[in-house]
Amino acid sequence: MTPEQDAYIDTRERFNDEAVARDYVAKKNTLATSKNRREMACIGAALEGLAVGSRVLDLPCGTGRLAAMLLKRGFEVVEADYSAPMIDAAKAWYLDHPLDGESASRLRFVRQDVMHTTFDDDAFDAVICNRLLHHYPEPATRRAVLGELARICRDRLIVSYYDSFALSALKFRLRNRLRGVTPTDRIPIATSEFRRDYESCGLRLLRTLPVRYGISPQTYLVLGVG
Q1: What Å distances lie between residue 114 and 47, 102, 209, CA to CA?
Q2: Number of other residues whose CB lies within 10 A of the CB of residue 45
Q3: CB count in 10 Å sphere of residue 176
Q4: Where are the domains of the chain?
Q5: Could you tell me the pTM of the whole model?
Q6: What residues form DSSP beta bridges with 111?
Q7: Under 8 Å between Cβ of 56 and 86
C-alpha cells in the first residue's frame, strides 16, 4: 500500500466508528463553543451570493452539524460521509432536534467515499469539504480529493486546510521536533504548497477565510470551478 493510500484508508476507517460518532455529536453538534461559531461564520461567508434553491453537498458531513445552517439559507442539502456510524448519528440528531417539514424535505443523507463519489458531473452548485484535508500529508491524496470534488461541482468548492502560517502551527512543529516525532496527521502545510494542489486540479482561488488569522491554522478557501 502506498503512503497516499495509507493516509486515506487510515482516516476513512478511523472515523467509521460508533464511539467516534458519539463523541462527535457531543463535541460538534452545538454552536456553544467559540471555535464552532468561528467555523460556521467562515462557511457562511464562503456561501455568500449562492442563490436560494442551490444544491449544496457537505462531504464529509460527520454528524451533520452544518445541515441546519445550510437549510436556513434555503439550499437543497445533501449530507454525505463514508462513515455509516456518522450518518446514523446525524439522522438521530435531527430526529431529536426536528426540522420543520419544509426544511426536512430539502435534506438528504447518503453514504459516499470522497475519493470515489457516485454523483454525476456538475451535480452540485457548491461543495463543502470541511476538516478533512489536514488528515492527508501527501499532495497526491489531497489532489485526488480536490479533483473528485471539482468534478461534481458547478460553482464553488469550499475547503478547509491547516495553514502553516499560524502560531499554533509553529508550536506544533516545535513540539514534535523536541519530541523527535514525525507527525503523520493534522499537519499544517504552506500556502504555496496548497495552492499547487488546487491549481493542479484546475481550481482558482476566489476568497481566503482564516478562522483566526495568525493564531489558528484552520483556513477556509473558496475555490472557483472551471
Answers
A1: 21, 28, 23
A2: 13
A3: 13
A4: 3-224
A5: 0.93
A6: 81
A7: no
Rounded CA separation 160/163 (Å): 9
Grid cell 442563490 is found at 51
Q: List, as one string, the DSSP characters of 63-98.
A: TTTTHHHHHHTT-EEEEEES-HHHHHHHHHHHHHSP
CA–CA distance, 220 with 209 (Å, rounded to integer): 5
- Topology (CATH) of 3-224: Rossmann fold (3.40.50)
Digitized pLDDT (tens) for each residue of the chain, 226 residues in all: 455 568 899 999 999 999 999 988 887 777 668 888 899 999 999 999 999 999 999 999 999 999 999 999 999 999 999 999 999 999 999 999 989 989 999 999 999 999 999 999 999 999 999 999 999 999 999 999 999 999 999 999 999 999 998 878 777 777 878 888 787 788 899 999 999 999 999 999 999 999 998 888 999 999 999 7
